[in-house]
Design brief:
The chain is of the alpha+beta class and 396 residues long. The protein has two domains: 251 residues, outer membrane lipoprotein receptor (LolB), chain A (Clam); 90 residues. Helix content is 36%, strand content 33%. The protein contains nine helices and 13 strands. It has a 13-stranded antiparallel beta sheet. A hairpin with a 2-residue loop joins strand 11 and strand 12. The two termini are 25 Å apart. It holds the Pfam family DUF6544.
Length: 396
């Protein structure tokens, strides 16, 4: 899961999870909310202060008070423009705080007008250009982020709108270990979910030698028809710097897109290796939506008493992976040979999902905490620790 850095890249026990939970706690939700609101408040105050400074031009033009900071004369018509600029900045501040779509355009208009006015009194107000540059960049980023949200929202609709499902296999057609797992999970064969919406929290390492984990929040939709998933992530790289990613698999086609600050493309990957890897990820994540195990395009092969191999073919893309269970029928591990990079000479290495905790969502018991590991020649690299915060199923 969360394989948005694929181009750069065992058994469940309560004791192992407790150790993970104690040593690698996710940042407190209240603290994250406080930091988020603090940044918004800081932007609000900065814009308001910059806007209010523009009132000095209005006050001087209409001789409402002595403004010694502005030594050059200002006409009344220019004074009105200074007032308009102040109002535009205040509108930008309020709109940005409440995340209104028009805020960025108010900000750009305010900056352009402000800069023109600053040029007229350059000696007195030239340092205002620094604030204008900062606010211009903020407004431009807001436009890119709005376009990003529009893009991913349209993509999500493709999965959310479909409610028809293919004719699923019967439970008795599956290997006994898969049947036991489905029964133990609380899955109802008579009422299979057609899609799942999943909110996730994750910690990620982007390279094997990275010491600290990076915090991420993600949202995913998994679907029976079209068979695939849409996943989007927001990861904090440093204070004030975020990465926005989108991973998608639909109708046999995988696609990966990552942008720094929502503006600068870091990764934009497609191709057969991405298709196959995305399909294998889709397979491994069927444990979150058990009805996928009955999909007619999945063929199962029993691998002894506590394991089974699944092979999925969608259009011309085929992928497979193995599911492992404990003696109680709990799913504990998924393994697949995946391409580590999206290059012509890329090789396949074991990609392993390991369960660390279970939780019940809407009557279905699924893995709620997992980790993902690449088994590389130089050693294992655990690059992901994931927890499910909430999950909701949609039915036909």
């Amino acid at each position: 899961m969360l394989d948005f850095i694929r181009t750069k890249r065992d058994d469940f026990s309560q004791e192992s999870y407790t150790k993970f939970d104690n040593e690698n706690k996710f940042p407190n939700l209240g603290m994250r909310l406080f930091l988020f609101l603090s940044m918004k408040t800081a932007l609000l105050l900065f814009v308001c202060l910059h806007g209010l400074i523009h009132l000095m031009g209005f006050v001087k033009a209409f001789k409402l008070a002595e403004i010694t900071a502005l030594s050059q004369p200002i006409s009344t018509s220019s004074g009105l423009l200074w007032l308009l600029s102040a109002l535009l900045f205040l509108g930008f501040a309020v709109g940005a705080f409440f995340e209104k779509p028009y805020a960025s355009y108010l900000g750009i208009s305010a900056v352009l007008l402000s800069q023109i006015l600053i040029f007229t009194v350059w000696q007195d107000a030239k340092f205002g250009s620094i604030a204008n540059l900062i606010l211009l960049l903020a407004a431009i980023q807001m436009i890119f982020l709005a376009n990003w949200e529009k893009k991913v929202s349209a993509e999500k609709l493709m999965f959310q709108n479909s409610r028809e499902i293919p004719e699923l296999k019967k439970l008795e057609e599956l290997p006994s270990v898969i049947q036991n797992w489905l029964k133990n999970s609380g899955f109802e064969e008579s009422r299979p979910p057609v899609s799942a919406q999943i909110h996730q929290t994750a910690q990620i390492k982007m390279k094997p030698d990275q010491a600290e984990w990076k915090e991420a929040k993600a949202f995913q939709i998994s679907s029976l028809n079209p068979p695939g998933f849409h996943w989007q992530v927001e990861m904090t790289m440093a204070p004030g710097i975020k990465i926005y990613g989108r991973d998608q698999f639909m109708s046999g086609n995988g696609e990966m897109l990552i942008r720094l600050a929502g503006i600068f493309p870091i990764v934009n990957e497609i191709g057969e290796k991405i298709d196959e890897g995305s399909l294998q990820r889709f397979l491994g994540e069927l444990v979150w939506m058990p009805s996928l195990a009955l999909h007619p395009e999945i063929s199962w092969k029993e691998l002894g008493e506590n394991a089974a191999e699944a092979t999925l073919k969608i259009n011309q893309i085929t992928g497979k992976g193995s599911f492992y269970f404990d003696d109680s029928g709990n799913f504990v591990r998924f393994e697949a040979l995946r391409f580590y990079e999206n290059k012509p000479d890329s090789k396949r290495f074991p990609w392993i999902l390991t369960v660390e905790a279970y939780q019940e969502f809407e009557g279905v018991r699924i893995p709620s905490k997992m980790k993902a590991t690449w088994r590389l020649p130089e050693g294992d690299w655990t690059w992901l620790q994931l927890q499910i915060d909430s999950l909701s199923y949609q039915y036909n």
